[in-house]
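Posting for a labmate who doesn't have an account.
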Amino acid sequence: MPKKKFTAPSTRPLLLKEDGQEYARVEKMLGGNKLQAYCYDGKLRICNIRGTMRKKVWMEPEDYILIS
C-alpha cells in the first residue's frame, strides 16, 4: 500500500476589514451552516456561513473570521 503524502495547509492572505465588516472569533459551531462568534465590538453574534465557503473552508472554535 503506498503511503499518503502529507501536504501542509496553505496560508491564506489576510483580508482587511472595510465599512460594514468586523473581525470576530468563532466561539461555537451550531450546525446548519451557523456559528456563534464573539466580535471585537464586544457583542456575541450568530452568523451564517455563506454558500461558497460551506464545504471548501473549514472553521473551528478559536479561529478568527471576517464577518459582514
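Reply:
Got it, the C-alpha cells are right above this. The chain has a mean pLDDT of 81.
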